[in-house]
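To illustrate this point, we now present one chain and its tokenised fold:
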Amino acid sequence: MDGQFCGESALTGAISYVTSEDLPMMYILQGHGETDLSSDMASAVSSENITTKTLSLLTESEVPEDCDLLLINSPQSDLATLECDALKAYLQKGGKLMLLTDFVKGGLPNLEAVVADYGVNLVNGVVLEGDNNYCAWNYTYYLLPDIGSHTITSPLSSNNYHVILPVAGGLTVQDGLRDGLTVTKLLTTSDTAYCKLSGTAMKTYDKETGDINGPFALGVAIEETLDNGNKTQIVWYTSSQLLDDTVNGWVSGGNKNLFLNSLGWMSTQENSVTIRSRDLNTNYLTVPNATASTLSVVLIALVPLIFLASGVVVVVRRKRR
């Protein structure tokens, strides 16, 4: 790809390709207004040696047997009851689901109920940050969440990457999860975050009566070990803009690495959970609001004052000679 150094990732992918007996097959659900992967994201998935096919559960009665991963990317309408039954059956056999959702008026109750059975509920709205350290460029809906500790996220944390989620919903984890079921919060807001249930129709960004108080998870990894030893795995992020090429560029590829690491974790490709090639053309400096405000004061006010004071000192000294 132009503008990127891909030598290491290409070599790693080639080694994985020739040494793996079974390469993962990812089906991408269609039929509900889902968002297609961009050409860059699709190419990145292919570079991970993951084959993709489209799937309609309106024409197929069940998820195909060769489905190693199922991607549902920003459905704009809910799944039908029979589709959810097929999805439940797939997960109960140890299926792997990657889910990205956006705010949809009225929610996606059928799909939400499937994941609620695994201990996670959606607050269907748009989350805004009350802490300037958790959002970018003075936009309280451009969220810069804390990155949790997990196999998926460890490479990002150790390499000081940010992840940014614009216009995201909130997730909450249920108390008293059943034995064998674990939920890890991958991305979390500050305690002062709040969710507007009116979503994209909100009239103000300020906190109002009726807004839901945080903190919220913005991404979770769910894993359940079944009696036969198989593992059901679900990764859920609450903004499909995680996969937007421009948004990904703002954090120097942090979003793409998070997405690919999530796929790698579920497909048990250990070599795929890493940091990949960097863009050599464009580098973005992404800083929280609070840091940006401090830098503005320093650069706009303090630095000019220092130069002004230095000039005054020089003039005074010259006059005294």
Remarks:
- The helical segments are 7-19, 39-47, 81-92, 109-116, 154-158, 245-250, 254-266, 289-320.
